[in-house]
Amino acid sequence: MDTSHDPTDSTIASDLDALIERGLSRLQAASPALARALQQAQARDRVRTLLQASDFALETLCRQPQYLEQWLTDDGATAVPLPVLQAGQSEQWPGQLRRYRTAESSRLIWRDVHGLDSVDDTLRGSTRLAETCLQTALDALENDFASRHGVVRDGDGQAQRLIVFGLGKLGGGELNFSSDVDLVYAYPHGGQSDGARTLMAEDYFARLGQRLAKLLDEVTVDGFCHRVDLRLRPFGSAGRVALSLAGMDAYFQREGRDWERYAWLKARTVAGDIEAGEQWLQTLRPFVYRRYLDFTALDGLREMKAAITAEVARRELADDIKRGAGGIREIEFLVQALQLIRGGREETLRERRLLPALRALVELNQVAAEEGDALAASYRYLRRVENRLQMLRDAQTHVLPDSPLDRLRLARGLGHADWTGLRAQIDGVRAHVAGEFAALLAPRKPGMAKTDLAQYWRSLPDDGDAQALADAGFESPLQVDAALREFARFSAVDALSDSARARLDRVLPAVLTAAAACAKPDAALKRVLALLQAILRRTSYLALLDEQPSALTRLVDVLARSALLAERLAAYPLLLDEMLDSRVGGPMPDRALMHEECTAALREEDPEQALRALNETRLALSFRVALAALDQRQSALDSTRQLAWLADEVVKAVLQMACDEVSSAHGIVGDGRFAIIGYGSLGGQELGFGSDLDLVFVFDAPVNAQSDGKRPLEAGRWYARLAQKMMALLGAVTSAGRLYDVDVRLRPDGAKGLLVSSLASFREYQRERAWTWEHQALVRARGVAGNDALLGEIEQIRRDALARPRQQQQLAGEVGDMRARMRNELDRSRGEQFDLKQGAGGLVDLEFLLQYLALRDASRQPLWLAPRDTPGLLVVARQQQALPDADIDALVQAHATLVAAGLGCTLDRRPRIVTVEDDIIHARQAIEAAVLRVGLVYQRLIKSPDSTEPPLP
C-alpha cells in the first residue's frame, strides 16, 4: 500500500502521546478516587497501555470509573457483577445488560493488553460473556412471557422452553472480542400456552426469540449488548424464526446443504433448554459427519472459498485478516474440512473447538505435528490481531487499518516499534496459511484428459478403439473393451449428476492406467469395475478416488493382488475408509484395541444396530490384518493369531448380547455359569480369513435351578437358549455381512449330543467315552469366553484328560489310523498340485504329530499341557527333546511356509492347493521325516469285523 503521504513517524508518535494524555485527563475528571490513583507512576503507565489499545475501554471507564479503580488493585481478576433484571422493570433491562457487557469487555481488554490472559483466555472470556448475557436476558423474558401468555406445555404437561443454539465461534467457545452471535431458535414440541392470552407454540417461541434478539442487538444510548444474526436458521431469512425439533429434523433430512454441515459442526446449545438441545444435536451428527470418508466436503469448501474470494476481490478486502488469503477463515476451513472428511469414523474429530480439533488431526496423523503446531500458532496470532483491531473501538472489523495513528497503536500494542515490523510478521503468517490451504484444495492433476485412455473412455459406449487398451498393455483388449462398454451403459452411470460424471471421467482413465501397470491387468480391471459399480451411487467414494490419486493407485494395487479383498470392498465399500486409514501402515491392533472396539459396538441401544456395528468392527479390523498380510508387513503367523484374537472379542461381545436378550425374556439363573471353548484353528490361535469357529458350550448350575423371570426356564433349557441365540447372532446377515459360521460338531457325542453340555457330563465324557482323536482336539482347545471360574474348571478337565497315561503303541496306531482315514476322505492333492492342509506332509500331518507327542508325554512332562498353538508346541518339543533341534528348526520353518502359502491362497480366493515348488517340497520333507522319526505311520490299521470306528473329526 502506498505510504508516501503518511505523516512522519515522529508526528504520529506525538499524536499518540497526546491522545493518551487526553484520555488520562478524562479519567481523572470522571472520579476523584481515580485521579488520586493515577498520580502514581506505575498506575499511570498501566492505564497508558490500556488507552493506547482501546478507545472503547476509555469511553466505558469514563462512565463506570469504579471498575478501573478496582483493576488497578486486583488486575481485573474479579468479574463484573451480573445485573439483576427485575420483573416489571423491562425498560431498564437494555441499559443494565449493555453497561454490564461493556464493563466486562473492558476487563477482558485490561487483562489482554497487560499479558494477564492468553488469547485462548480472551476468546473463552468473550464466549462466556455472550452466554451470560443470553441466558440472563432469556430468563427475564421467559418470566415476562409466562406472566402474560403462560407457558407452552407438552403432552405430559411439562413446561417447554426455548432452545437457543449458538453456531460459529459462539458454538465453538472461541468468540472474538466484538463478534456478532449466530443464533438458531428451536422448541421441543408443538402445542399452545396455558395463560390468559394463549399463543400457539410457533408464535410463542418466535416472539420470544425476536424479543431476545432485540433486547441484545438494539442500539440504545448505552450502545448494544451483542449483535445477533439469525440468518443461519433453516431456510435463512425467509424461514420461521423458531422451529420445532421435528421441523428441524425434516429440514435437514430434505433440505440440508453442504455449507450447513460446516455451520452446524460447531453448534452448541447456549441458552434455554440446554439438555433438550444437546440431545437433539446428537441426532444431527449423521448429517454433519458421514459414516464414511467424505471427500465431497471439499466440493462444498471450494464453493464457499470461491464465493469468499469473489467477495474479497469485489470489496477490495485484501487486508482482511479473516476472509482474505491466508486469513483466519482459511485455517478454520482447513481444519473443518478434514473434520468433515474423517469425523464420521473418528470420534475425536467431532470437536466444536478449532484448536482441540487440530490436535486430534495431528494425533490421527492427518496433519504433521510440525505443521499442526505452526497452524495453531498462526491461528492464535491472527486471532490476537483480530481482537486488538476490535478492541480499539468495539467495531466488528477484520481489516487492517489505513490510519497511520491506528497502525502505530496496533503495532505497539503487539510489541512492534512500528507498523512496518508488524505488517511483515502478519504477511509472513498469512503466506504460510495460504500455502497450506491451497495444498488442501489443489485441483486434480491436469493432463489426464489428454491421454489416449481418457479419450478412449470418453468415446464409450458407442465409439472408441480397443487398440488403446492393447497399446496400454492389456492382455485381452477385446474382452476388456466389452467389459468397459457394458460398464459405460450401466444405469447408475447414466444416473450420475454432472459433477459426479466429471469425477468418473477423471477416475476411469486413472484406473485404466494403474491397472495396465499390474502384473495381471485384465483381472485387476475386472475387480475394480465391480467395485465401481458398487460405489457409483455413493458419490463420496468417487470423490475420495478423485481427490486422492494415491488412494486410487493403492486401491488398484490391492485389488490386483487379492480377490478376497476385492470381493469385500465391492460388498462393503465402507472398507475403503479402512484401506486409506492413516493407521493402516502403523502398529497392528492388539487385544486391548480389539476389545475396546468390539465393546464400543454394544453401546448402540438397538440390538440390530449393535450387531451391525459389531460386524463393521470385525470387517474393519480383519481388513487391516489382511492388508498387513498382503503387503507382508507382518508374518502369516502373526496375522492368523490376530484373527483369532478378533474372533475371541467378537464371541465375548455376542455372548453379552445373547445374555441380555435371553435374560430380558426369562430372567437369569442364580449361581449359574456358562463358558465357551474354542477348538481347532480358533483354539490354536491360527485362524484364517473366512474360517468358521469350532465352539463347544458348557454350563454349570445348581440342581433343579431355573431362571427368575416372568417366563422361567430350567437351567439346561436356559443355557441351550443362550447358545442358540449366540449361534443365531453370529450367523445373522446384516448390511455388513455375517460375523462367523459356527461348527459345533466337536461337542461331546458330536451331532447326537446336546448343544450345551453340563460341566458334569463334559467331565464324564472326557474321562470315560471320548475317542483318542477327541483328546487330540483337546490339545488345541482353549477357553474363549464366559465365567472365569468355570473356564478354570474346564481347563482342569482338559489337563486331566491329556495327562492320562497311555500305551504308546496303541496311541500311535490310533493317531496314524485316524490321519490315514482323513487323508483318504479329504486330501485334494493331484500330481504337482499339493493340498496344503490335508496333503501328505501338510499342516494336519504336523498337527497330528504334535498332538501325538502331547498325549504320549503329558503324563510325565506337564509342560505339554500349556501351549495350544503349533509354535508353542514346537517350543515344548525342543525343551523336552522329543525331536532333535535340527528337526525342530525344520518344522518351525515348514509350518511358517505352509501357513503363509495357505494365507496367500485365501487372500486371492484360491483353494489351498498349490503347485509344488522348492519351499513346499522342503516343508513336506521336514514334516514327513519328523513323523517317521517318532514312529507314526499314517496308514489304516486292520480292524476286526465287529470293532467300532470313531467318526471323522
Automatic annotation (TrEMBL):
Record-level GO cellular component terms: cytosol
Alphabetical UniProt keywords: ATP-binding, Ligase, Magnesium, Multifunctional enzyme, Nucleotide-binding, Nucleotidyltransferase, Transferase
Record-level GO BP terms: regulation of glutamine family amino acid metabolic process
Residue ranges of every copy of the Glutamate-ammonia ligase adenylyltransferase repeated domain listed in the record: 46-281, 553-790
Annotated region described as Adenylyl removase, given as residue ranges: 1-447
Top-level EC class as recorded in UniProt: transferase
Gene3D superfamilies in alphabetical order: 1.20.120.1510, Beta Polymerase, domain 2, Nucleotidyltransferases domain 2
CDD domains: NT_GlnE_GlnD_like
SUPFAM superfamilies, per database record: Nucleotidyltransferase, Nucleotidyltransferase substrate binding subunit/domain
Cofactor(s) demanded: Mg(2+)
Domain PII-uridylyltransferase/Glutamine-synthetase adenylyltransferase: 302-440
Region Adenylyl transferase: start-end pairs: 456-953
A Pfam short name: GlnE
EC number: 2.7.7.89, 2.7.7.42
One annotated GO molecular function: ligase activity
Catalytic activity: [glutamine synthetase]-L-tyrosine + ATP = [glutamine synthetase]-O(4)-(5'-adenylyl)-L-tyrosine + diphosphate; [glutamine synthetase]-O(4)-(5'-adenylyl)-L-tyrosine + phosphate = [glutamine synthetase]-L-tyrosine + ADP
Function: Involved in the regulation of glutamine synthetase GlnA, a key enzyme in the process to assimilate ammonia. When cellular nitrogen levels are high, the C-terminal adenylyl transferase (AT) inactivates GlnA by covalent transfer of an adenylyl group from ATP to specific tyrosine residue of GlnA, thus reducing its activity. Conversely, when nitrogen levels are low, the N-terminal adenylyl removase (AR) activates GlnA by removing the adenylyl group by phosphorolysis, increasing its activity.
Protein family per UniProt: Belongs to the GlnE family.
Record-given protein name: Bifunctional glutamine synthetase adenylyltransferase/adenylyl-removing enzyme
Organism: Pseudoxanthomonas dokdonensis
